[in-house]
Amino acid sequence: MAQPNRNARQWKFLDIFTAMFFSLVLLFFLLVFTPFGDPLAYSGRQALLLSTSDPKQRHRFVSLVELGEHRQPIDPCPPDSVDHMPCEDPKRNSQLSRYMNFYRERHCPLPDEMPLCLIPPPLDYKIPIQWPESLHKVWHSNMPHNKIATRKGHQGWMKEEGPYFIFPGGGTMFPDGALPYIDKLRRFMPIKGGIIRTALDMGCGVASFGGSLLAEGILTLSFAPRDSHKAQIQFALERGIPAFVLMFGTRRLPFPAFAFDFIHCSRCLIPFAAYNATYFIEVDRLLRPGGFLVISGPPVQWPKKEREWEELQAVARALCYELIIVEGNTVIWKKPDRDPCLKPNEFRIGLCDESDDPNVAWYVNLKRCVTPSFINGGYAIGKIPGWPERLLRAPSRALIMNNGIDLFQADTRRWATRVAYYKNTLKVKLGTPAIRNVMDMNAFFGGFAAALETDPVWVMNVVPARKPLTLDIIYDRGLIGVYHDWCEPFSTYPRTYDLIHVASIDSLTKLPGSRNRSCSLVDLMAEIDRMLRPEGTAVIQDSPEVIKKVARIAHVLRWVTTINNKEPESHGRGKILVATKTFRHL
Predict the structure, then answer these.
(1) Which residues cross the membrane (predicted)?
(2) pLDDT in tens, 58-90
(3) Does the pTM of the predicted model rise above 0.85?
(4) Where are the domains of the chain?
């Protein structure tokens, strides 16, 4: 019998080992000394970015992007993130307290806990239908969520029809459409004539009520939480209606005192008299003296809700609200326009201390006290100019600021000139059907929005919470907006704005009066990318040094950019970056 050839086996093993060794050496040289290594290294970096386990690696990557030492595009987020809102994440928030719906309010991850990636659109995403056609129909493929159409179709909310979702204009309390409902309200309220301009619709559904009021010259900010209906605010924004994701829970709503001429609740199910009338008191803080409060649905003359209805009326009486009408399941009250009136009551409601600033409303807990309106008097309905005169007239609340009237007038003139430059020289498509939903991330007095008033747009004016609180002046002008801290994600769905504008973007990442950053410019611009629609426009102003950095970041976001001089009438050395978000299926 032949003996086994042990040497042959040894040589075979050594050959394999040697081949593997030299293959690894060759791979090392390829990775280090040829471009082949870049994509692999890039993918490795991106994998780290999708992980929250290594904050140092994330910080290093952000620094490389800002310095221009990393130029490959940022990778997409996972496909299931197409509708991701970092601060309204049901999985993250589900373990929080249910008390007063705390778990459904904003709860944001720390920057180091968020993956740095680009939110992809749905697979069959299309450029949105333009305004005003979008008011009545949107692409089904852009938000393929059939739940509302299935559950609420019989109430006139929306229905699926071919490749579209169709919006008949109805709601739970007005299934035949918002227009007949508004006609009912106009019998008791000055809907026309410019007396009422700013409105808040709480628990708005798909915002057909606010959309219908636009024809009356009333600008309504509609809000609802991310709840079992999931995409109601997403549908509203796709339609081109002003809307915002928000939960009425444990905190003040992010608006200044006496902002709204009209507040509306149609089956919003907010327990206004609960918790010692805390929710009604917050509505009172937001409602302008002489303004109107309309509640339709439970508990107004609702079966088995008699106790809640009695308590609601008792709160209104305690705050001296004038009962205009109770008709069916709808009640209309008018807030007194005189000095604060507070009657003895069972809810232990008192006046707020003078040290309480009613305009501070960013992460401030609800308070069980009434804000005296005389603190900033002279702006009740009937005392302020009607619409549109109030847009360009300096309001009385501007007097509180040093040289407030002069600043207001100069700001109005500056933005009228600058917006004309955007349109005529930079060829930004403002004033065309291509742009409907607009955001100003650093609004100050709202001069940018005021300059767009004749355009078919609406503007979300954002006043940074760490800057002077000028949002009350914006509302006095008849415009709308919110407070926000730009070191956190905004409460909106991805792909909801056609144009996002920001002046002095670098200041949004810093503490007031400090050069130290509290967040990164990369994260802020990634958030702009999340909010911006494909083929949407970003217009960013700042110093040449900052704009150069912004352009480097824009490159890794896959934006197409141009850098331009400021308008000739402007002083200073600032630059303007105009960017287009590419239509990409990442």
Answers:
(1) 12-33
(2) 889 898 998 888 889 999 999 999 999 999 998
(3) yes
(4) 171-370, 389-581
